[in-house]
Amino acid sequence: MTQAKRQSRKLGWRFVVLAVVIIFLFLAVIRNVWMDVYYIPSESMEPTLLTGDRVLVSRLAFVNQPIARGDVVVFDGRGSFTPLKSGAAPVLDGVVGAGQWLGLVPNSNIYVKRVLGVAGDTVKCCSASGLLEINGVPVTESYLFPGDAPSDVKFEVTVPHGRLWLMGDHRSVSLDSRSLLGAPGGGLISTSKVIGSPVATVWPLGRIHVLNRDGAVQP
């Protein structure tokens, strides 16, 4: 092989590597600033989101509009839903982290729930008719998993500034704010932990839909 051919091959590989790095950095910027992909690992948001769904999440969903009751949010549960922890196996953590970044592996620190109470709200379960009550008004929840009660746990909380009361749509299996009533913070999640809102399901192919902020499929 001539010197010129060797030089050409080296330049070709360098170009490929550079192109891959640029694409990776471009995707990293997009996913950290604008859109990200998350894997739904459990049944807690059925029937709105199913186990195995990959959802496209807008990080800008709440920039111009505040989080409202009924919104479905993706949030970081570290320090509340999951304890703070450090990785014990850096290599394994790196592999798992790559799978999470690609949306192939569930991230045990990331949760998807529905907002039932924002700052100033008093959320109670249940009313005399067995419904969830927000600020003294019974609420009919059409998104609940068929056959589920609004809550098997009785509670009454007033949401302070900067906090949210979150619950899953499949109440009978959902780990949510009710599960943390006796913990520090009383199950109330900081708004600063909210990553964004699902705007579409992108996998599996048969469930590709554009979503509203409340998780309803757009026609």
Shape: elongated
CA-CA gap between termini: 61 Å
Largest β sheet strand count, sense and barrel closure: 8 strands, antiparallel
Mean pLDDT level: 82
Helix and strand element order: HEEEHEEEEEEEEE
The low-confidence parts are: 84-103
CATH topology of the largest domain: Umud Fragment, subunit A
Number of helical segments with 4 or more residues: 2
**DSSP summary, beta strand count:** 12
Radius of gyration: 21 Å
- The CATH homologous superfamily of the largest domain is called Umud Fragment, subunit A
Total tally of structural domains: 2
In percent terms, what proportion of residues is strand? 25-35%
The assigned structural class equals: alpha+beta
CATH class of the largest domain: Mainly Beta
Under the CATH scheme, the architecture of the largest domain is Ribbon
Helicity range = 10-25%
Keywords: Hydrolase, Membrane, Protease, Transmembrane, Transmembrane helix
Subcellular location: Cell membrane; Membrane
GO cellular component, one term: plasma membrane
Catalytic activity: Cleavage of hydrophobic, N-terminal signal or leader sequences from secreted and periplasmic proteins
